[in-house]
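Milestone 3.1: sequence recovery, worked example.
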């Protein structure tokens, strides 16, 4: 597996990956916003041979604080180290740039989704810690949990 860093133009690469994880990303209008975002912003792409199997795109809030805006791994490649490889590459670059904190938002554990229980387990396994819950930032039915990691 290899991870490449692409400055822009990755919509066509990322779209099939995002479509494969519809249990996590099931709202088409939000998916289109993610695809537009990765097309306009730098994105890490994981490949198995020459096939794209995962991606991660960042949102830079401040020089020392960055957010994982979207991350997705093709459903056929879950639990094979793809997410870890994407994060390892991301964190190495951010450390070189002097970034101190990496954050991510996901559904809080009060939401019954088994898929997002796996997502929270992944982040906690990658040493992210819960910081705050935002009950209505997305919607009342989708409370957001903010996790953070010191780099």
């Amino acid at each position: 597996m290899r991870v490449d860093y692409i400055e822009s133009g990755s919509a066509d690469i990322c779209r099939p990956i995002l479509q494969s994880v519809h249990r996590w990303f099931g709202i088409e209008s939000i998916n289109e916003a993610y695809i537009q975002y990765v097309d306009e912003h730098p994105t890490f792409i994981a490949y198995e041979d020459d096939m794209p199997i995962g991606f991660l795109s960042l949102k830079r809030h401040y020089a020392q604080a960055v957010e994982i805006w979207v991350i997705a791994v093709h459903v056929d490649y879950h639990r094979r180290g793809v997410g870890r490889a994407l994060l390892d590459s991301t964190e190495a670059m951010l450390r070189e740039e002097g970034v101190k904190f990496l954050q991510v938002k996901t559904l809080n554990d009060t939401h019954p989704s088994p898929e997002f229980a796996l997502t929270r387990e992944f982040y906690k396994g990658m040493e992210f810690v819960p910081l705050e819950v935002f009950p209505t930032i997305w919607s009342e039915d989708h409370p957001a949990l903010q996790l953070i990691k010191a780099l």
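The longest helix spans residues 82-96. The mean pLDDT is 90.
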